[in-house]
Give the backbone structure.
Amino acid sequence: MARSAQRRNRQQRQRRPTPRAAAPVTRRPTTYEDTMFFPRLRRQAKWMFVFLAVVFGLGYVIFNVGGTIPGTGLGDVLQNLGQGTAGPSVGDAENKIEDEPNNPTGYWELAQALQREQRADEAVAPLTRYLGFRPKDRRALSMLAGIYLTQARQAQDRAQLAQFQLQQVTGSDFFVPGQSSQFGQQFGTGQVSKIEADRLNAEISSGYSQAQSAYQNATRTYKNLIAAIPNREEADQPSIFLQLGFAAQSGGDLQEALAAYKRYLVVAPDSPNAAGVRQQIQQLETAIKAQANQPPPPQQ
């Protein structure tokens, strides 16, 4: 009986199918795309896309860079700031500063002269020094905020141009469907492409970083400007709160932007722009909640 049971067990084991060996786990090789800026951003910090959508998209609607709300566009902010033809030259202003380094007039005249010569970046230093003497001068604060916004927009433009060039270098068909770029056809995706893409990735990162820094500077300047305006005069220039909101939003301070837009509604509740501002507030509140609910980005 025992031998019969053993024989049946042996026959059953023989009839069972032989299990397959587990397929070896192969790690996906690192591809060229893995080294690129935006794929890394998508994998490592997905929560940032909510933030970037608000910073670089929705703000343009309210601020009128695209032209939706009269009187708050970037051109309106910069209009007539140091654009006159009269006044001391750069050399004369510099001589005045050398003779009287503690006289704020020389710094103001130098900033205006540099603006007239389209050297706005150089005007930041004398404007800052001038405001050290007269921190509540609204003309100087407006000029400085306008310069910072210009710097931010130029840095964004450089980053966007580099992003477009990166897509061309890597043979993307986003802009030319069905065709690879001329660079890609000539050099392929070898070492030359990688070197060029690394350079463009660095330009993209640098451009957006510089833009955010300039927006933060503009935010600080607009806050100083608003602090210099008496409460009784706020209703006469409510667009300043839209400008602060846009600068703060683009600089990453969503809470400050939200407060600025809400203040605008207090100052100008019957404005024809009020509906657009309320919509912007809703979008910001949604973005802030989404940002708060996202886990922190992984440590590098």
